[in-house]
Amino acid sequence: MKIFLSTLIALFASLLGAAEIYRADFAKEKSLFTPYSGGKVVYSAGKGLLVKHGVYRTVPITTPGQYRVTVNVESSVPLQIAVFSSLKAGYSNELRPKSSGKYQLEMQFFSHAKGTGICLFSKAGKNAEFVLTDFKIEKIDYPALQDSDVAPVVFAAVDYPGINGFNAYSKKDGNFRRGQLWYLPVSGIPVPLTSKPLILWAKVRKAPGGKLNLVWRNATQPLTSVAMPEGEFSWVKMRINNALSAMPCITFGLDGAAKVNGDISLIVLTTDENYRPDEKTAVSAPLSLVSAFPADGSIAADGDLNEKSWDNAFAASLFRLPDGRPAVEQTQVKFLYDENNLYLGATAFESALNKWEQRLYEFRNNLKKPDIAKCYDDDSIALMIKREKENKVYEFCINASGVVTAMVETVPDLWGTRKIFESGVNAAGKTDHGKFFVEAAIPFAAIGGKPFPGERFKVMIVRYEQSRKEKSSFSGYGFHNVAKFGELAFATTPFFGNIDSKINFHSGENQLKFISKSPAWINSFVTAKGKTANYLDMQGKFQINTQGEFNYFASIRNPFTLEEVLRLPLFTGSASARIMQIKAASGKSVLINDGIAKKQYLLASGNNKIVTDDAAVSFKIGAFEYQPDDSWQKNSSGMLTKNLLCDISRLWPDWTVGAGLSIPAGRVQQVLFYPFVPQGVKNADYTMTFDLPENFTFEGACGYYNLNPLTVENIQKIVINGEKYNRHCIRFNNSVSYIDNPQSHTYVAAFIRAPENAAGKKFKIYFHCSSRSGNFIEVPNQVNVSVLKKVEGKKMAKQHMQMWTMWLESMDDPTLRDLIAEEFAFIGVTEMMANNRFGLKNFQLFSFENWNFNLDEFVKMHPESRLVPFDGKAYSAGTTICPQYFKGNEEFKQWFEEKFPQWHKRRGSPDIVCVDYEMGIFSPYAACICENCLKDFAASAGLDETPAPADIRGKYRKKWMEFMTTQVANEIHFIYQVSKRLLPDVTIYFYSGYQSEDTKINYSIDWNKIHDAMDFGGAGYGRPVKAIADTIAAAQGKPVILGLILEPWRVVSRDVPQVVSEARLMQIMLDATGGALLYIHGTMDGRSMNAIAEVTSVVAENEEFFNPGWKNLTNEVTLRGCPAEVRQNENGEILVVAYNLGAKDAECVIEFKQDVNFGKISPTLKLKVPGGKFSAIRGKIQ
User: Fold this and answer.
1) Average pLDDT over the chain, rounded to whole?
2) What's the pLDDT score for residue 16?
3) pTM confidence score
4) Which of 178, 339, 575, 711 is most exposed, with the fewest beta carbons within 10 Å of its own?
């Protein structure tokens, strides 16, 4: 815990900044450094001060404040810093070297600026010698103190455990902290940054046996003290005049008689001189807390959240699921209030509204009027309020259109007593890319009147999310249970900020990222194995130093008033850490992360810095053992050092989680990784190592775009847990540096082949990174590998099995790209995004982005052709052109006809050109408001005058949608006609969202207008049955392929990889008229590849039942059990395909109206279908 306090001090200095005010010049100032207590100080040129016992210096500090002294020494004896000032003497942690070397020691302290002296001394006696090589003082820049009042704030001592002491409990007195002489049992209480005198009350007692004082300290210095009463708990009062003296946090120590217990129960901080605690004083510890802030001006409640007041309201974010995990789809909620209303402003992040994912249909926004039964079926925000003196709860469920279902309920049976009431709530909602907003004005008159002074509402805030079926809240689980409600406080001053709604708990250092215009105190509490650790920080950093389950919550306070503005609900997580066994010689030292490590050490995720003077020390983590060798570097003290990394490297997707990785026997699996290194560590020889079982083959590795030149070596045979392995190293021939979120095209692909005769067996592979120049090595990460029976697919003649493949065409090694193509051909894929030698067609995307088909040359020649965007902001990814130029402009036509064949050749002469269009009707990609476009719009809309752009967004939005779908259709027809005229053998494939009003608005596409500008179409994702049917109908006979998107498709995600099931893929083939597209290959392993092979082999043998010409008999039979389709070909033959989307085995029973022959003549067909599989059988009606 001493290490923690030192770390805390460093965190504050790092956050706030520190300015050097003094650095010793020993040659000029040697007389100012005087011996301590009979010691001796001698200056030695080129070395510094040769000190015996200790040295003292009165330091030149001129202004009161917090400072840090840092000394560098050469020593083999223990050393400590002491600071003497108007406060009592303060002391640093003691440096205890086990061998002679160079060390650094520092201490933070407060000085009133007069007569501050600093002593560096050894407790080893007057003959202890050391060399002082550097001595400096820095002033730590805390925020300026404000003339703020601090209303009484109550803290429970048990919530703020210090260096030592322990929690105690009695039925009479409840929880308290206990300690004895020299203990610091309580620490980490925030300090209000007020310029007013700070008064502290503490509820304490001591046991009989001698005097005991309660000492109020900062991290290193005692500030004031008071005698502790004996017997019953009583309140004692303490006071300081300068809050800065208590920084970085309030700590309590005990001083007096030895072996006398002192107990601390409650602490109250205030600036109120007249305040007196009493027996009613208690901690308010709600399950969660949000704050409402004063509104400055009127709030429109129009769904825009654009009033200035919203900027001055702290956001409640990090919603939790019922099991305590953070929700995937997160929510931020703010509250304002004025004389008449409580205002709610919610921002709900929703991946189904990310238009690039083609999942808009999964978003639910159907309710048009209040409905007590259906309001929770929409994507919505629900707020429940209970007033202190009422047994009623008011509930407001608001969807993304602003439809409010207002209900009143009676405690305790909230659910069973819900009734709609007229609330007078004014609300609005709006959807945007990736999120939706809800804004509401709730009259206080509708919820029992204005809050009385000091009142806090009991509240439950819930998000109903439909695409993932998530129900999350900013409180506990049990949404209609008042005992699980949090609190809503009414703050008196604005406080802007929010916390990042994404947090990934892991062992080691974590951070609750805080975004604010002003600082805030963030108290993080981590409880594991019955013990709570408290971390106070303005950056939100905290440690998880445990294995297994833990609980976490945080409190955020205004630093000037200590007003709690937010309290997170309780989260539950699980952390995995590595236990390291250490064997060191007697008398030798091992330091890990600046702390002394003994026989066992819990390694944290990230960088673990090892320093030792034992060249024979050994470290064992699981099956892996390390000893110093010639790759270990020496520090300036001659100590051996190494950075031991944990959980730095990661594969994408993360095959270390879930069921691991599956590879069909004899086939190849691609795994992607990025060369992650610790922040601040430089290296020039980064190496990724894969340890594979000896019967596996490492086929090679390469990057993309020649960004990472690599050398691959198969270097040695090793044994892990008694099994034989081959070690393969991928060395980077360029410098690698820290990047937080690298792009997918900067990753590296490695290729692993499973043994031919190992189907049904399980293995483990390991991977880790290292660098000799960077002095680091990582503890190997494990991947569980299952070898599957290989399944060979078949190539279909007309149906598509299209594979989207990220940056495959730009892979540095063409032979490895061919390995992928060979795998695709083996399972029946028909087209991929690269040329190959296995008969798969090459398809490439076409767009007017600069990296693709760049219009910049033409626009420079014809500046008048540049598109005029709605908001004046040009399209960020490329130069765009006015849509009028696609309507017959000869100069543009000639230029395009010249450039298009060049583009085609540059893109590898693809067999298929995919025109992928997913831009909204106001996007600067095609939405132009030049004079000609506006005139055309007015004419098409039947308007007498040319409208203003603002009116188009408002009252003419629907007409503009029709106009833009025509504009975009003209563009697509233009591309199609040029392509067919110049490159008639090239297939034009058009891709967008399903036919729907959402697609017209968000993608500017009406399939009815572009069916004759494509050879086949593609749409995705998911299964909106009506939208699929509408798309196929609008295509008017052109084949349509349907998409399947696999999570995670973003490389930043650590989610468990999703698997293509045979059943889902066959369902897509049955729904479509042209086949399936799969997005994206990088996410797949052998389970998905085998599923594709199973589907293509059946479809290829029965393609006449999938190509045009078959008859659907499904509605003419009776089905029971899992879904099925019954189709008849032109020869009268029947194909029955039953598919089981569930996990458990199921039966499908089909009753025909007459006998059928499926090898057995009967009107009834029964099929057993395993979970996730399909069953297909061919027969004939008798």
Assistant:
1) 94
2) 60
3) 0.82
4) 339
